[in-house]
Amino acid sequence: MTTTGTATAHQELTDEFNPFLAMAKRFEIASDRLGLDPGLRDVLRTPDRELSVSVPVLMDDKTLKVFTGYRVQHNWVLGPCKGGIRFAPDVNLDEVRALSAWMTWKCSVVGLPFGGGKGGVICDPREMSKGELERLTRRYTASIMDILGPDRDVPAPDMNTNAQTMAWIMDTYSMHVRSTQTAVVTGKPLALGGSLGRHEATGRGVMISAREALKRLGMRPEDTKVVVQGSGNVGGIGALLMHREGYTITSLSDMYGSIHNPNGLDVPNVLEFLAEKGKLEGFPDAEAVPNAVQLELPCDVLIPAATENTITSKNVDKIKAKLIVEGANGPTTFPADSVLDERGVMVVPDILANAGGVTVSYFEWVQDRMGYFWTEEVVNSRLEQIMVKAFDEVDEVAKKHDVSLRIGSYIHAIGRVAEVYQLRGSFA
């Protein structure tokens, strides 16, 4: 291969793993179906605001270290921006842009009065103490204070952040505005205005999405083998809920490796083992499998619930599942999508399948603002209604346009945002 050919191949591979480019390509396909004019496409494609901040933190050894943080507000035409904050060493602006846009479409596809936002800080939480993480969180919050607020931008947990992180953000914001503002974040501890059912919401939404998709395929839970990539808040809880519904969960994974039992894992025991040992390695009655191989295991349903770009042009031909339910954001690259579509593999896309989390975040925001809290039964029932309704609507749109569920989701979501934008008009 020539130098030019090598450079082109490298660029194509780089483009495949750029989540913002993947979002943009799907956006264009949906916009073509909707017949959106070029100007409106530019408005809906382009983030409304991008903020990059330097975050100096006093470390435990008394040295100062400067971290880089981002907050991107993609679109607020439907309401306040909504989206998580992640702490990870590989956070970058294109990733945050893509996640922010996906949040816009995710909120729209399930009919929530939110726009999309996302944030991140470049750091490695595994190498930081709790005190360092608290100081990082509070300084980052102070740096983006001007764009936060219950009516402006409402963060939530994401990768390597949790309820405690949200408590620090809520407290920092409240101290600055001199009043307790519980609705400035969601995913908080219950004692600070969190919602019952929030912790399980994303996994529950994945379970509901899988069930609705299987109905379309004429399959029953008790006859269905499931591979779950991940074992945390999405993968672990989703696997547990599906296990209770009669699915056979044959594999789970963490960052160190995967475990597999073709006859089914005892998911409650697996999660108890994981909580005690800190990793899945060594779990009895299962074989160890490399993470790269896990996605290629025989199964009926594959649930990628870890990170972006796990199903790619390099491994898509080895995927054996009949149904893929995306628990993570952006786990399937654009080229891999095309292959799966050609093979007739049904994919329930991230902006629909993992919308359970933001839906119950919306419930939490509503409860905080009115000062009245619902029972877990009410939360779960309302989540079920919204997820099933959204799945039915997307399925109808996909059939109408003869497209995949992913493109159907984009058409449905973008169409809603475009309609509201046109009704509101352009401010001049």
Mean pLDDT: 95
Largest sheet: 7 strands, mixed
Please state the overall shape, judged from the principal axes of the Cα atoms. Answer: globular
Oligomeric organization of the protein chains: single chain
Over the alpha carbons, how many angstroms does the gyration radius reach? Answer: 21 Å
| Order of adjacent strands in the largest pleated sheet | 9-8-7-6-10-11-12
Helix content: 40-55%
DSSP summary: helix tally: 15
Q: Determine the N-to-C terminus distance.
A: 53 Å
- In CATH, what is the homologous superfamily of the domain at 199-353? NAD(P)-binding Rossmann-like Domain
Order of helices and strands: HHHEEEHEHEHHEHEEHEHEEHEHHHH
Task: Describe the protein's topology.
Layout: H1 3-16, H2 19-34, H3 38-45, E1 49-58, E2 64-75, E3 81-88, H4 93-109, E4 115-122, H5 130-143, E5 153-157, H6 163-177, H7 198-217, E6 225-229, H8 235-244, E7 248-254, E8 257-260, H9 267-277, E9 287-289, H10 291-294, E10 301-304, E11 323-325, H11 334-343, E12 346-348, H12 350-353, H13 356-370, H14 376-401, H15 405-424
Parallel strand pairs: 3-4, 3-5, 6-7, 6-10, 10-11, 11-12
Antiparallel strand pairs: 1-2, 2-4, 7-8, 8-9
Structure description:
- There is one protein chain.
- This protein is α/β, with parallel strands linked by helices and about 425 residues long.
- Among the domains are: about 130 residues, Leucine Dehydrogenase, chain A, domain 1 (Rossmann fold), CATH 3.40.50.10860; about 160 residues, 3-Layer(aba) Sandwich (Rossmann fold).
- About 50% of the residues lie in helices and about 15% in strands.
- It has 15 helices and 12 strands.
- The strands form 2 sheets. Strands 9-8-7-6-10-11-12 form a 7-stranded mixed β-sheet.
- Helix 11 links the parallel strand 11 and strand 12.
- About 50% of the residues are buried.
